Amino acid sequence: MASSENEASYHSTSPASDELRSLPPEHTCIQKFRLYETLSNFYMIGTDKSNTYWRVLKIGRLDPSELNVREDSTTYTESEISDLLRRIHEGNKSTGGLKFVTTCYGIVGFIKFLGPYYMLLITKRRQIGAICGHTVYAVSKSEMIPLRSSSVQSNMTNTKSENRYKKLLSMVDLTKDFYFSYSYHIMRSLQRNLCENETGHVLYETMFVWNEFLTQGIRNSLQNTLWTVALVYGFFKQDTLAISGRQFILTLVARRSRHYAGTRMQESRFSAILAIQIKEGLMIEQPWWSDDDD
């Protein structure tokens, strides 16, 4: 019953003039998210940096063994999003209503061990630099949230093996040596970014996107990468230099391949993929606030 009420309230809020609504620019990036939950669904509310365009992602909870995600094609305003959330809450009051879960800054991916799916989120970020005006961030805090609703029973949720796999994943510290950018393709070299205009799935399929596998499910379902961030594992350092009275920004970027990213173990003898492959890049640019014209 909760699911049917939820569906009714959700669809009734879509503006009548969807076909006339101005869509966000093609390269608009969703950078800020709020996660809400009802008994039967998660609702991820995303907006761009200026809080101008708002989108909705619905994640099912009634069958946590399957990844059920659906993106609302409507682009909302802030007031329309508030009205949408109010109506979802009203439609689910009998089962506890709509509850705020967390603020986050992107989906790292979804993973399943022996039982339900889990959603990995970036809940805190920090700015570590910028390339050509595009901000680069590091992960300050992450969280793994089970999709399973409290009303759905799972025999595997608390088993010894399930907890062991969860512990193994939690040993990967995303706050160290991982970085990402919403608007710059940090997994590729500056030369490729200047010469090629590839977007979407192609970018995630490079060897330098650490969470390529974790994002496969949602990317294949939605056919876009609007809600996920492409994490790169490696090194990023940026500093400002002054040479002959002129300021320059020096950026050192190193990307480690996700293939055989640990101990070499002689893997390179048996595979065409190098056991440890790291690409480095050095960039020098003048800051945009420089007084020099040339």
Question: What would you say this structure looks like, in words?
Answer:
Keywords: Hydrolase, Membrane, Vacuole. This is SAC domain-containing protein. It is found in: Vacuole membrane. The chain is 18% helix and 33% strand. With 294 residues, the chain is of the alpha+beta class. The chain has 2 domains: 1-104, no CATH class; 106-294, no CATH class. Helix 1 (2-11) packs antiparallel against helix 2. The longest helix is centred in the first third of the chain and has 14 residues, at 78-91. The chain is globular and about 70 Å long. The model is unreliable at 1-6, 12-22 and 289-294 (pLDDT under 50).
Using the CA coordinates, give the radius of gyration: 21 Å
Multimeric state of these chains? single chain
Uncertain segments: 1-6, 12-22, 289-294
Gap between N and C termini, in Å?
A: 66 Å
Number of domains: 2
**Fraction in beta strands:** 25-35%
Helix content: 10-25%
Task: State mean pLDDT (0 to 100 scale).
Answer: 83
The number of helical segments is 6
- Give the ordered list of helices and strands: HEEEEHEEEEHEHHHEEE
Largest sheet: 7 strands, antiparallel
Number of separate strands:
12
Query: What does the overall shape look like?
Result: globular
The secondary structure category is alpha+beta
Q: Strand order, main sheet: write it out.
A: 6-7-8-9-10-11-12
Topology:
Blueprint: H1 2-11, E1 32-37, E2 41-47, E3 54-60, E4 69-71, H2 78-91, E5 99-104, E6 107-112, E7 117-131, E8 134-146, H3 160-170, E9 178-180, H4 190-195, H5 201-204, H6 216-222, E10 232-243, E11 246-256, E12 278-285
Antiparallel strand pairs: 1-2, 1-5, 2-3, 3-4, 6-7, 7-8, 8-9, 9-10, 10-11, 11-12
